[in-house]
Design a protein that fits this description.
This is Acyl-CoA reductase-like NAD-dependent aldehyde dehydrogenase. GO terms for molecular function: oxidoreductase activity. Pfam families: Aldedh (PF00171). The protein is an alpha/beta fold. It has a single domain, classed as Aldehyde Dehydrogenase, Chain A, domain 1 (3-Layer(aba) Sandwich). The protein is built from 10 helices and 10 strands. The strands form 3 sheets. It has a 5-stranded parallel sheet with strand order 7-6-5-8-9, sandwiched between helices. A 3-stranded antiparallel sheet has the order 3-4-10. Strands 1-2 form a two-stranded antiparallel sheet. The longest helix has 20 residues. It is globular.
Amino acid sequence: MSRTESPARLAVRKTYKLYIGGAFPRSESGRSYAVTSSKGEFLANASRASRKDARDAVAAARKAFGGWSGATPYNRGQILYRIAEMLEGRRAQFAAELADAGTKSPGDVVDAAVDRLVWYAGWSDKIAAVAGAANPVAGPYLNISSPEPTGVVAVVAPDDPLLGLVSVVAPVIVTGNTCVVVASERAPLPAVTLAEVLATSDLPGGVVNILTGSVKEIAPWLAGHMDVNALDLAGVSDPGLAVACEEAAAENLKRVLRPAPADRAADWAADWAADPGTRRLTAFLETKTVWHPTGI
């Protein structure tokens, strides 16, 4: 090589980590697994989360719940809108990662994810009016029902690595819940990139925690965790695993949202891919009813 030639530059490879409590730790077990493209080409090593990582994520979500649920709905909507803005700003990166995962029309999928975030953001200060009610009662009382977030929600994200992830996380957090998400095992890289967006979008640390690794390993531990209040099995395709998670969730009476079986494929209530409605917004809300005397 002559003195005038520059040495070949080595690319700075990205390290894909977990996202817990607003930080990016490696798995405490030190494990990782190879992520390949739809053509079998090596893309990166992703962290393989352990049950200890799952416990840490639940603790982070619980710590963040008070502040997030106490924020004004309008503020939560603003933050979701900010996430949409930043996601659109990194459209090319997300599209490239989706293309590697074999997604058809990846640019259109990124646009759909942005639009879905904006759609849910718009519901932040409206869902209480739709889901709440002033109830007629016999007696000198004012009886009002209002929705409140249920708490920490464990979410198994669909195999669609971006739109599926956004579709199950957005309705959970816009209503004031915090969550622990198990990302697509096959294609986790867009989820880690989305975590970078979340970390810089005014979303408080711990509101969303993203784990990568084996769904069969992590999901049952989250289902049985006594500080998890609800469970979304959108990404569980194995009926046996879904039943096992439901049984574990029954220990502390978790709310469970399970995908519709094949004979009810048109049931949009449990289908993240359908046009969004209020069903996913209300799935993880509790109804509080207040009686107040009006005088005699």
